[in-house]
Amino acid sequence: MQSAEKAPQSQEATQQLVSLYEVRHEDGRLYYFDDYSAYQHFLEHDETPYTYKRIAAGAKGETLVFGLTSKDKKKTSGIASVDMIDGKLVPEMFYGELRHEGRIYVFNRIEDMNEVRATGEAALRFTDIGSGPKGETVV
């Protein structure tokens, strides 16, 4: 019986938080990151050293730019940000940020993030005006 009780605990321990950061840039491109350091580098320098691009693949013909880490730059599959955008990865433990027009949208379910991406609005939300790191509104 003890081993049966331990199984769920070890399963829970293997679950990992998966993050997706999206920036709708003023250049018309959509930038996606699954690595916080790469995302922060982009926010500070407005560029990312390694990318995978899909030209005109966005819903409105935007270019999708996936910011990669040095360990992901040679991969052709298994990149979390790409898999989440393609619907191949739906993490149970999720954190997402979407930056658009001076707002930072924060999500704990990828389904909610996808809905905002599709409709442009968050149906259920709490808005905290000016509480972002640079005075942005956090939704």
Strand order of the largest sheet: 3-4-2-1-5-6-7
Radius of gyration: 17 Å
Please summarize the sheet with the most strands. Answer: 7 strands, mixed
Q: Indicate the mean pLDDT.
A: 86
Characteristics:
28% helix; disordered N terminus; 139 residues; 7-stranded mixed beta sheet; globular; alpha/beta
Structure description:
The protein has 139 residues and is an alpha/beta fold. Helix content is 28%, strand content 25%. It has 4 helices and 7 strands. Strands 3-4-2-1-5-6-7 form a 7-stranded mixed beta sheet. It is globular. Mean pLDDT is 86; it is low at 1-14.
Mind sketching the topology for me?
Layout: H1 2-14, E1 18-24, E2 30-33, H2 36-45, E3 50-54, E4 64-68, H3 80-85, E5 94-100, E6 103-107, H4 110-119, E7 137-138
Parallel strand pairs: 1-5, 2-4, 6-7
Antiparallel strand pairs: 1-2, 3-4, 5-6
Summarize the structure.
This protein has 139 residues and is α/β, with parallel strands linked by helices. It is built from four helices and seven strands; from the N terminus they run H-E-E-H-E-E-H-E-E-H-E.
